Automatic annotation (TrEMBL):
<keyword id="KW-0479">Metal-binding</keyword>
<feature type="domain" description="Xylose isomerase-like TIM barrel">
    <location>
        <begin position="101"/>
        <end position="292"/>
    </location>
</feature>
<dbReference type="InterPro" id="IPR036237">
    <property type="entry name" value="Xyl_isomerase-like_sf"/>
</dbReference>
<keyword id="KW-0464">Manganese</keyword>
<dbReference type="Pfam" id="PF01261">
    <property type="entry name" value="AP_endonuc_2"/>
</dbReference>
<protein>
    <submittedName>
        <fullName>L-rhamnose catabolism isomerase</fullName>
    </submittedName>
</protein>
<dbReference type="InterPro" id="IPR013022">
    <property type="entry name" value="Xyl_isomerase-like_TIM-brl"/>
</dbReference>
<dbReference type="GO" id="GO:0046872">
    <property type="term" value="F:metal ion binding"/>
</dbReference>
<keyword id="KW-0413">Isomerase</keyword>
<dbReference type="InterPro" id="IPR050337">
    <property type="entry name" value="L-rhamnose_isomerase"/>
</dbReference>
<dbReference type="InterPro" id="IPR013451">
    <property type="entry name" value="L_rhamnose_iso"/>
</dbReference>
<dbReference type="GO" id="GO:0016853">
    <property type="term" value="F:isomerase activity"/>
</dbReference>
Length: 429
């Protein structure tokens, strides 16, 4: 297997920091031991954690106004896979890539699967795209896709989703993520009830095409591109649709797809309560669907979400196996650096959630001891878990400090020389 970053470079980097890491890990281990926590057991759980990266996240994103490309950014799925391999090689928590079609279309999907495999990667959920028109496409999605008033347009959207399932089977995926931009921009533009009926009828045809071991992940989003109403706008619409479609339909929570200040951790707990929590798109936001780097704005919320996910792990319902993915738009950073940093932020929150003294928390909740319940969470949140993550990473062959090793490798400068320049153009949704 020829990986993009030299193994010797990673080993040299790790050697330089080995003594410091051992010292920090031992010190944290002693601190946690006093709380009755075995640091090796936590490290073991952290080593088993992973989050997929989106193929489209490897390129520079943009806004509705501009995209500022950087030299060496990938322009096709092959280059994107190479960049994703760098992220996995250094972080060891991102072994899967979530592709988006038709953006990642190729002629030979079995060869694509082998290519990914040779880079140490596999494929995660397949994302369909019925929010954009493609060149030569007979029907426009300007009236919506699965909920369009035009039957031929709905049919085209159904067929595209079924094609995504077929591609997914060839590349080893078992989940189809469906996000539709369908909705309206003006009051009265469409009948709100009938629009949902059309969506459910079309989505049921996609659902019927799912292989036995597949899931359909419904991703809700409050607004954008529809600014007055969106068909699957919130977790309520999402769970109702998933319940109507059947057991293989689950809900996917993208952290940026809610009204400001909504209690997302409560949504997580609710969806899990009804066995419908299927997946996550991690990112962060300040104002709307900003697609900022995970944990860059509100790391505490990310921790609280993981606190619910750890509770859910302890009380699994209906085959609980959430598909975790990063979904960000990197407008001003090197996407590889952003995803390395985000993978670390996400894993940190998972590790902190594992440190929560669950017996103390549940006891305080039962006793209505609010302050102790809160402090039980706070105590875990305040731990610097970096030595646990670094130890798990190094033991798995990754880098002690992924960002430092990445810069040292000069990978970005090499790609800037080798790869064709990217055009300007708009960003992603
Ligand atoms: C929509 O905003 C979204 O979050 C969906 O997951 C899309 O498929 C993705 O972004 C990429 O544009
Ligand atoms: Mn998303």
């Amino acid at each position: 297997m020829t990986l993009p970053i030299s193994g010797d470079l990673i080993a040299d980097h790790n050697d330089q920091h080995a003594a410091a890491l051992d010292e920090d890990y031992a010190a944290l281990g002693r601190q946690l031991e006093r709380r009755g926590i075995d640091i090796d057991a936590i490290k073991h759980r952290v080593a088993g954690f992973s989050v997929a990266v989106p193929s489209w996240g490897a390129g520079r994103g943009g806004t509705r106004f501009a995209k500022f490309p950087i030299a060496g950014e990938p322009t096709n799925i092959h280059e994107k896979l190479e960049d994703c391999a760098v992220i996995q090689q250094l972080s060891r928590v991102t072994p899967r890539v979530s592709p988006h079609f038709p953006w990642d279309k190729v002629s030979d999907y079995r060869a694509l699967r082998e290519e990914a495999d040779s880079l140490g990667l596999a494929f995660d959920a397949v994302n369909s795209n019925t929010f954009q028109d493609q060149p030569g496409q007979p029907q426009s999605y300007s009236t919506g896709s699965l909920s369009s008033t035009i039957e031929a347009t709905r049919q085209q959207a159904i067929e595209h989703n079924i094609e995504c399932i077929e591609i997914g089977q060839a590349i080893g995926s078992t989940d189809l993520t469906v996000w539709v931009g369908d909705g309206t921009n003006f009051p009265g533009q469409q009948d709100l009830g009938k629009q949902l009926d059309r969506y459910l009828e079309a989505a049921s045809q996609v659902y019927a095409a799912l292989p036995d071991d597949w899931r359909m992940l419904l991703e809700h989003k409050m607004f954008e591109p529809a600014f007055y109403s969106t068909v699957i706008s919130d977790w309520g619409s999402s769970i109702l649709a998933a319940q109507e479609l059947g057991p293989k339909a689950k809900c996917l929570v993208d952290l940026g797809h809610h009204a400001p200040n909504v209690n997302i951790e409560q949504i997580v707990a609710r969806l899990h309560r009804f066995g419908k929590l299927g997946g996550f798109h991690f990112n962060d936001s300040k104002y709307g669907d900003d697609d900022l780097d995970s944990g860059s704005i509100n790391p505490h919320q990310l921790f609280l979400v993981f606190n619910e996910l750890v509770e859910a792990e302890l009380n699994p319902r209906d085959d609980f196996r959430p598909a975790y993915m990063i979904d960000q738009s990197h407008n001003v950073t090197d996407p590889i650096e952003s995803m390395l940093s985000s993978a670390e932020a996400i894993t940190s929150c998972y590790a902190k959630a594992l440190l929560v003294d669950r017996d103390a928390l549940h006891g305080a909740q039962e006793a209505n001891d609010t302050m102790i319940a809160f402090q039980t969470l706070r105590r875990a949140y305040n731990v610097d878990v970096a030595p646990i993550l670094a130890k798990a990473r190094v033991e798995a062959g990754g880098a002690y400090d992924a960002l430092v090793a990445y810069r040292y490798s000069q990978y970005s400068a090499r790609k800037a020389q080798e790869r064709a320049a990217v055009g300007l153009g708009a960003g992603i949704v």
